[in-house]
Amino acid sequence: MGSFTGKRPIRSRRAVLVAVGATLFAAVLVVGLAFANSISVGRATENARALHWANASLGTAALARSALVQATTFVELAETGQVDPVDAAVAVEDAKDARERLFELLESGIATGSSAELNAFLDPVDAVIGTLVAGDYERAKNLVMVDLETSYIELTDSLEDELDSAQIAMDEHEAAGTRFSDFVRFFLTLAIPAAAVLIYRSVAKRQVREHKMKAQLELQAALDVSKAKDSFIAGLSHELRTPLTSIYGFAEVLTEGGAADRATTSEVSQIIANEASEMTRMVDDLLMAAKIDSTGVEVDMSPTRLSEVVESAIAPFEKAGLQVTRSPSQVVIDTDAARLRHVIVNLISNAAKHGGQNIGVAISYGEDVVDVEVWDDGPGVPEDKVANLFDKFVHSGSTPLLTGSVGLGLAVASCLSTMLGGKLAYQRFNGKTYFVVSLPLRVEVQEEPAKEKGSLATMVRALTT
């Protein structure tokens, strides 16, 4: 009996050592898993940034190319009197603006394999702009057809390769995570001694469950990002190609002398300008969304007369032939006029694309809030889609929530409204669709504005007082 009792402590110590060793090994395994997951998430974030930058660069490069073609055509036609010199000067300024957007992307701090091609693309862009400013449109045409086109093809090829590489990297990270998960499950099942498994069974099971849940969430997130990316690229390519096709077609009409008289020439030129303006708005939304997601957007608050902001937002639409009613107002508030104009432009554009024939902008106010309402008499948004109306890249199945949209306009408008200290809301009332921007009334009301029957906020206040 004495010899038997003397061996029990030894066996007990061995069991403790085995248990401690299994615990340490399990702890190291958990640390390794967490480290691997953190690296995977970091790499996925880098790939997502590169993907976003490449998408923005593709759209902006297409816009710059289109703007340069338009500017060159307008300058040439201005020399023969077929286009107003003022329109030609505006086209050159648009080309300069497009060039600045390209430069902003290059200076955004995101280092990718296409940065060199984008920098190289800026050289013929600058050369074309310089020759247009100097009045040498013949040389500008040659630069556009040879240097610019060659550099553009190289840039788009590089960006498309980069998009493919980013997608492959995301797939590889997903596959590596799955392999690592399989290894962990195998180790926990077979390699740990039976005693340690029994001792730490509950801990091991909890860790496995948490890891499975995290892996499922990461896999679903990766699939959602990939699907959103594919839908976004398809939508953006279609939306940019549509106005670009019109611009090229009508530009060829002007270049080949297809416009028989000055009135027709002016009409064709206006169509080109309208399509270029729509492309600019889409790219502006794309750049604004990138700023909101990365560095944020600065706001410059100052006393602003609302009616002036509304008129500046309506002006380009009326120039394009859209009729927009508005209510008179002398309300002055503390806000950022440029950001608020961006919001109103997006809402009017949304109403013009998806609303009814009648569109209006109304301004009303209460004791501490002022409402800017953009309304139309269209059918509105389906009830089951309202909850996600202000999300980015919202789709229903494979169909965009709002056809004819890349899915950024309302999301950008909502974010900017929040940055201005207010909020953007959707309402359906009395057969009309309302998008209401509610802002704090912090300055003054210089005189009582006219009450408009179509003002939703005015009717709601009347019912509650």
Give a quick set of tags describing it.
465 residues; alpha+beta; Heat Shock Protein 90; five-stranded mixed beta sheet; three-stranded antiparallel beta sheet; 11% strand; globular
Helix content: 55-70%
Total DSSP helices: 11
Which structural category do the helix and sheet elements fall into? alpha+beta
Q: How many distinct beta strands?
A: 10
Spans of 5+ residues with little confidence (pLDDT < 50)?
1-8, 395-404, 449-454
Number of folding domains?
2
The end-to-end span amounts to 96 Å
As a whole number of angstroms, the C-alpha radius of gyration is 30 Å
Question: Overall 3D geometry?
Answer: globular
- Order of the strands making up the biggest sheet: 2-4-5-9-8
**Major β-sheet annotation:** 5 strands, mixed
Helix-strand sequence? HHHHHHHEHEEHEEEEHEEEH
Strand content: 5-15%
Arithmetic mean of pLDDT: 75
